[in-house]
Specification:
By secondary structure, the protein is α/β, with parallel strands linked by helices. Helices cover 39% and strands 13% of the residues. It has two domains: 103 residues, Alpha/Beta hydrolase fold, catalytic domain (Rossmann fold, 3-Layer(aba) Sandwich); 117 residues, no CATH class.
């Protein structure tokens, strides 16, 4: 992977250090394997559940080692979904005792159209000379990516992926997964992921959401006669991308 993909958090950590936070004393990191996600109640999620337990322990230890002060949680992207699940899976008295503030950077609360592109045609993540189709199977194997599919509650019936014969909205994700040949993803999406999307509850702690501006964000994918193996025309909120 390229440095700009793997080291993007370093500047944030350095900035926090400049204003007085000390690594291992008042500043703690909680990295996770982003290939794994969580599942709705009643479904096993060994790696994701263990991460939540470890994160809970880290929060309690950080608070105890700093005079029982409540902590500030700072998440980025998918981390925001994990933090929200952690908060909502613990009782309100625990949240009130240990959480001072939750700051979510670019959290994909309602999923992204970008993930539909990843599942259908692969995503090179900006790495030069990489054919997206070569990494598509590996990307489909990451269970967390189903969690990032567009939420019906947010996207509604808006056309998200358009082919010559069929138009797919967020309500049609199971049919979309079938159409792109990812049949094994349909049942996990319906039983494990969709319930998580449908129960997006407020954590009842102070929360600040920070998002970017003037960022090209895919809103619709237009596929031609060549099907899903050819990258689509991407309509963004501010522009149209075409791949050749």
């Amino acid at each position: 992977m390229l440095p700009h993909i793997t080291a993007y958090m370093s500047s944030l950590v350095e900035s926090l250090g400049e204003i007085g936070y000390v690594d291992g004393k008042t500043l703690f990191g909680a990295p996770y394997d982003f290939r794994y996600g969580l599942a709705a109640a009643g479904h096993p999620s060994q790696v994701g559940s263990k991460f939540l337990q470890d994160l809970k322990s880290l929060i309690e230890e950080a608070s105890t080692s700093n005079g029982d002060k409540p902590v500030i949680l700072l998440s980025h992207s998918l981390g925001g979904l994990f933090v929200l699940q952690l908060l909502n899976r613990n009782p309100l008295p625990w949240r009130q005792k240990y959480i001072k503030h939750f700051i979510a950077l670019s959290a994909p609360w309602g999923g992204t159209v970008q993930e539909m592109l990843t599942f259908a045609s692969g995503n090179s993540l900006g790495v030069p000379l990489v054919d997206p189709l070569l990494v598509r199977a590996e990307q489909r194997s990451s269970e967390s990516k189903l969690w990032l599919m567009p939420s019906p509650k947010l996207f509604g019936h808006k056309p998200l992926a358009v082919t010559p014969n069929v138009t797919y909205s967020a309500y049609d994700i199971p049919q979309f997964l079938e159409a792109i040949g990812f049949h094994e993803g349909v049942q996990p999406y319906k039983s494990r992921i969709l319930p998580l999307m449908e129960h997006l509850l407020t954590p009842e702690v102070p929360i600040t959401c920070i998002i970017g501006s003037r960022v090209r964000t895919p809103e619709s994918l237009f596929y031609g006669e060549c099907g899903f193996d050819k990258l689509p025309e991407i309509v963004c909120d501010c522009a149209i991308w075409s791949f050749f």
